[in-house]
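S1.2 Input.
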Amino acid sequence: MKRSEFLTALAGFPAVAAAPALSGIAQQDAGQVKITDVKFMRVQIGSRGHVLPLVKIETDAGVYGIGECHHDVTGLGAKDVVLNAFKSILVSQDPFDIARLTELMKWRVSYTGGNGGIGMHAVTGCEIALWDLVGKLLNKPLRKILGGGCYTDKVRAYLTSQPRNMLDKEVCREWIGYVDNSVQKWTAAKPFRISRRPGGQQLNRRLTNDELKTNIQAFSNLREAAGDDFEIIVHCHWEFGFYDALSFARALEPIRPWWIEDPMPIEYVDTWAKLTAASPIPILCGENLYTVYDFLPFITNQAVHMVEIDISMTGGLLEAKRIADLANLFYMPVATHNVMGPVATIASANCAATMLDFIGHESYDYSENSRDGHTNWEKLIVYDREIIKDGHIQLSDKPGLGLELNKDFAMQHLVEGEQWWG
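S1.3 Output.
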């Protein structure tokens, strides 16, 4: 069977009804699609947001895929890797060979930082672009072709934001009103713990009694304003030692948080299992872990109650699926960490839709009413529905990621010196 015939049969519709992309495939002399170019550009929307490193993979069928890398400081790290290391690997290759091409990219950067860091960010952006491309070639949404299809067509979201002063009950009530009246109608949020520096007032891993009381008052105020059904996550940043993390977890029990996130430093030590066994509330970690091998000891040693995968930096959607499948073997729920733009968010949510026992996907408010520094980020893409509505990320039925970049908006927010897919 020729490649064009195979694609048409797999897509489940007759050749005469095939999308223009498929007619382009049929025109290939060898009956195969080949990658012809890899392009990159950096966008920054507003002064507070991360630089968004974007990847485009083009083919001789006239079809392309778009991806987004996890951020570094300027985006130049990912740009260097994509254009100077990965482009020569990908050009002339069959885009359907996603697993093989991803392994080649991982191998290429393994000596520049192992299985982590900027190299892995770049791998992920390219792998996402390959999935977007293949989805378009097959005329199928990404979630329908990734690892056996999906469990859902929408993914529950949680907002990373908080009232400006959680110690003020009225401010908490006003903030909950903003959440309730938004288009997104969030049903969960992740506010930061209150701390002046990592570890508290002193540069150590301690939580002072004053800080403990302050945090419990703040989260109690938010629980009172939000009611019992709104999920509250306690957002730490790897700062506490065992006893202080456990004291914090025990004090939070009456508030019934969804989980407490990253209360201890990111490396695996047996103390994580000790904390999880003693904690009355769910313990979660994962945002600074990369591949399944980083997650392996946390999962197999039952050192957390649930894991959080940052899909934009794991090395790709296939690697994220491996992590989720491992967690599922231990009946461990999975959430996602996500601090990137709408391209990475929708790619991550498509992957999350294929995971059993997935519970929550992080996002910012990308709308014009955003209070967290991400105003109008939604305008970067052309999408056929609200990105987030009724507390869920909405997934398109269009092929691939189901989105296109808004060229006019992107051009207005190019990082200085960048060109449109220059």
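S1.4 Remarks. Residues 1-31 have pLDDT under 50 and may be disordered.
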